[in-house]
């Protein structure tokens, strides 16, 4: 990751060495990295249990409450980032194609939260957390469908995860795990995982040039608006507050609900998700992704501790262990494959650049231009090298870049590799 002094370092390189920009060492790791990582894991793990502390609130209304407050916080962070963006990037963000992608991402996020909160009311907390955490496995399935390169470890991990999901579903279908576990609830949690894949896919496209808050604020705002309107029609029957404080903005006037919603918006949303995005500057995205997979372990424990969840059954332990192990295998296998692919691309680029310097005599004429064109050919979507480097710098400025290693940078620059990048991608800011 480039920090102070990078300009001088870049000036010392020949023009054709543009591909070496990402080989610079990451910045020094602050002392607070791992304390923040632990706090972020506990913060996101608490969300499911806190949702269950409001069992009488309808699910879509509850999901809308969560995103309403988060939107306000994200807008405060998006304003300075928007002003700092280049004019060309601001115009691109407002263009019709990217505006439509933003709307689609917001719809996916709304579906994710709506389905997940509904699942918390229809199945056990362990089942819901385990199944909603299967997004990395679903991304492998999507990569297979798109015929993208996939390693044997990723395929094996996916099969193991599917076996674990079958064990969980069997326990729900037969009723052996009690009345709180239902097949409908498990299906809603799985649907929430499917919806978040669409959100991540669009994010991989737009975050190439949009800072974290600039991307997350409108997406989260659109999702909050969609859930609020749905709840207003389907659950609140036109009530904004409601006598029972179950209106679409009822939490604002409720002493009972407001503390929980504030916790979800600030602790789970900011300390948790934004904390993960901050740590991507100092820790590998694989480390962050594996830490997120601790949520299905800590979440049920927190729920049991505050009295909203019972101890998991043996079937939940067995199926859950398979799902968690499979997800970790998928993430680690994807990281190894991407590192190998990145190393191969770097070798080919260095070889091609060396040939370009030889043909051009190492000067600033045609040979130097050949080196720049080589780096430009790596840009995602056919962008020139300058645009690709600028996109990475903008991502870092937003605090959610996660591009500190040469392997991740090369994987990001490989055209058509959104799914592969997401297998190591960081959490959303929502």
TrEMBL record:
<feature type="transmembrane region" description="Helical">
    <location>
        <begin position="99"/>
        <end position="119"/>
    </location>
</feature>
<feature type="transmembrane region" description="Helical">
    <location>
        <begin position="288"/>
        <end position="309"/>
    </location>
</feature>
<feature type="transmembrane region" description="Helical">
    <location>
        <begin position="63"/>
        <end position="79"/>
    </location>
</feature>
<feature type="transmembrane region" description="Helical">
    <location>
        <begin position="181"/>
        <end position="200"/>
    </location>
</feature>
<feature type="domain" description="EamA">
    <location>
        <begin position="36"/>
        <end position="168"/>
    </location>
</feature>
<feature type="transmembrane region" description="Helical">
    <location>
        <begin position="157"/>
        <end position="175"/>
    </location>
</feature>
<feature type="compositionally biased region" description="Low complexity">
    <location>
        <begin position="419"/>
        <end position="430"/>
    </location>
</feature>
<keyword id="KW-0812">Transmembrane</keyword>
<keyword id="KW-0472">Membrane</keyword>
<protein>
    <submittedName>
        <fullName>Drug Metabolite transporter superfamily</fullName>
    </submittedName>
</protein>
<feature type="transmembrane region" description="Helical">
    <location>
        <begin position="315"/>
        <end position="335"/>
    </location>
</feature>
<dbReference type="InterPro" id="IPR000620">
    <property type="entry name" value="EamA_dom"/>
</dbReference>
<feature type="compositionally biased region" description="Gly residues">
    <location>
        <begin position="355"/>
        <end position="384"/>
    </location>
</feature>
<keyword id="KW-1133">Transmembrane helix</keyword>
<feature type="region of interest" description="Disordered">
    <location>
        <begin position="344"/>
        <end position="430"/>
    </location>
</feature>
<feature type="transmembrane region" description="Helical">
    <location>
        <begin position="31"/>
        <end position="51"/>
    </location>
</feature>
<dbReference type="Pfam" id="PF00892">
    <property type="entry name" value="EamA"/>
</dbReference>
<dbReference type="GO" id="GO:0016020">
    <property type="term" value="C:membrane"/>
</dbReference>
<feature type="transmembrane region" description="Helical">
    <location>
        <begin position="125"/>
        <end position="145"/>
    </location>
</feature>
<feature type="transmembrane region" description="Helical">
    <location>
        <begin position="212"/>
        <end position="236"/>
    </location>
</feature>
<comment type="similarity">
    <text>Belongs to the drug/metabolite transporter (DMT) superfamily. Plant drug/metabolite exporter (P-DME) (TC 2.A.7.4) family.</text>
</comment>
<dbReference type="InterPro" id="IPR037185">
    <property type="entry name" value="EmrE-like"/>
</dbReference>
<feature type="transmembrane region" description="Helical">
    <location>
        <begin position="256"/>
        <end position="276"/>
    </location>
</feature>
């Amino acid at each position: 990751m480039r920090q102070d002094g990078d300009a001088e370092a870049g000036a010392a390189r020949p023009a054709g060495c543009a591909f070496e920009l990402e080989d610079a060492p990451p910045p020094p790791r602050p002392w607070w990295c791992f304390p923040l990582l632990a706090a972020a894991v506990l913060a996101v793990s608490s969300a499911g249990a806190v949702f269950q502390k409001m069992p009488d609130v309808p699910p879509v209304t509850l999901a809308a409450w969560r995103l309403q407050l988060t939107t306000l916080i994200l807008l405060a962070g998006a304003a300075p980032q928007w002003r700092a963006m280049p004019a060309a990037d601001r115009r691109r963000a407002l263009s019709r194609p990217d505006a439509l992608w933003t709307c689609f991402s917001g719809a996916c996020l709304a579906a994710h939260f709506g389905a997940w909160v509904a699942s918390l009311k229809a199945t056990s907390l362990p089942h819901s957390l385990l199944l909603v955490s299967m997004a990395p496995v679903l991304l492998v399935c999507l990569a297979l469908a798109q015929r993208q390169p996939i390693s044997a470890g990723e395929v094996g991990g996916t099969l193991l995860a599917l076996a674990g999901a079958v064990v969980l579903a069997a326990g729900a279908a037969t009723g052996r795990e009690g009345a709180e576990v239902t097949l409908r609830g498990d299906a809603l949690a799985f649907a929430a995982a499917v919806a978040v894949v669409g959100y991540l896919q669009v994010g991989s496209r737009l975050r190439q040039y949009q800072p974290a808050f600039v991307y997350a604020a409108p997406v989260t705002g659109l999702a909050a608006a969609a859930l609020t309107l749905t709840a207003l029609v389907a659950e609140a029957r036109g009530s904004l507050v409601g006598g029972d404080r179950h209106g679409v903005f009822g939490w604002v006037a409720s002493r009972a609900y407001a503390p929980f919603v504030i916790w979800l918006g600030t602790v789970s949303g900011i300390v948790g998700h934004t904390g993960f995005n901050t740590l991507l500057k100092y820790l590998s995205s694989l480390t962050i992704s594996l830490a997120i997979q601790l949520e299905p372990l800590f979440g049920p424990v927190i729920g049991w501790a505050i009295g909203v969840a019972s101890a998991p059954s043996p079937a939940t332990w067995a199926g859950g262990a398979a799902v968690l192990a499979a997800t970790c295998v998928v993430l680690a296998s994807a990281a190894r494959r991407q590192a190998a692919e990145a190393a191969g691309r770097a070798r080919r680029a260095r070889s091609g650049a060396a040939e370009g310097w030889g043909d051009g005599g190492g000067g600033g004429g045609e040979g130097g231009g050949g080196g720049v064109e080589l780096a430009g050919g790596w840009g995602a979507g056919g962008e020139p090298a300058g645009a690709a480097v600028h996109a990475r710098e903008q991502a870092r400025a937003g605090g959610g870049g996660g591009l500190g290693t040469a392997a991740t940078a090369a994987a990001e620059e490989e055209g058509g590799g959104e799914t592969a990048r997401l297998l190591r991608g960081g959490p959303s800011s929502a």
